[in-house]
Structure formats: C-alpha cells, structure tokens
Design a protein that fits this description.
Layout lengths: L2 H24 L5 E2 H11 L6 H13 L3 E6 L7 E6 L1 H23 L1
Antiparallel strand pairs: 1-3, 2-3
Length: about 110
C-alpha cells in the first residue's frame, strides 16, 4: 500500500467535501457559530476540522453568497459570528446532493 498517496487522497477528498458538509448542516435552518459548527461536523462525521480550515471556507461561502453571517453580542466574552444558509445556498446544496447521490451510486456499482 502506498501510504503517502492514500493520505494525500484522503486529504483532498475531505477538502472537496467540506463545502457540501457545511451547507448540508446549515440546511436544517439553525444558526451556528464557528466553534459550534466544527463540533457539529465532528459529531455527524468522522472528519476532524480545524478553525484554520473552517473560517476561510466560511469566508468563501459568504463571498459566493451561499451563507450569510451576523455578529451577536454575548453576555460575557466577545461577540460571535453566526452563520446561516442563504436561499442560493439552499438551492446549491440541493443540487450538490443530487450529484453526490449519483456519484455515490456510480462508485458503489464498480
């Protein structure tokens, strides 16, 4: 087994699916702040995501108008930025799901 190749492949696969995962989680309509979103990803998947990976991703999704964000003051501590999915994001994740299901069917048929 080529461990180096496999490790790189897994890393690329994770990077390629993180947008889909984040949008799928936000699809439930709940607002999440960054740390909460990281924990939700860990809870629902076996993917360990770092803050240094999530926040640039969220900025890209916001730039693409797939998510919206707002700052919320906290009783104690600093304000938190909460993320929600936009209408465009909802449409996009639904299209991604259709493709994902098709790809999954194809891979499983091999």
């Amino acid at each position: 087994m080529n461990e180096d190749f496999t490790t790189k492949w897994i890393s690329q696969l994770k990077k390629g699916t993180l947008s889909f995962l984040v949008l799928s989680i936000l699809k439930d309509g709940k607002e999440y702040y960054g740390y909460d979103l990281i924990n939700e990803i860990k809870k629902r998947t076996q993917i360990d995501i770092a803050e240094g990976t999530l926040y640039p991703l969220m900025n890209r999704l916001k730039k693409e108008e797939l998510v919206a964000s707002k700052w919320v003051e906290q009783e104690s501590g600093i304000p938190r930025k909460y993320y929600t999915i936009s209408k465009l994001g909802l449409h996009t994740v639904n299209e991604m799901k259709i493709y994902w299901d098709s790809l999954n069917t194809t891979i499983n048929s091999i």
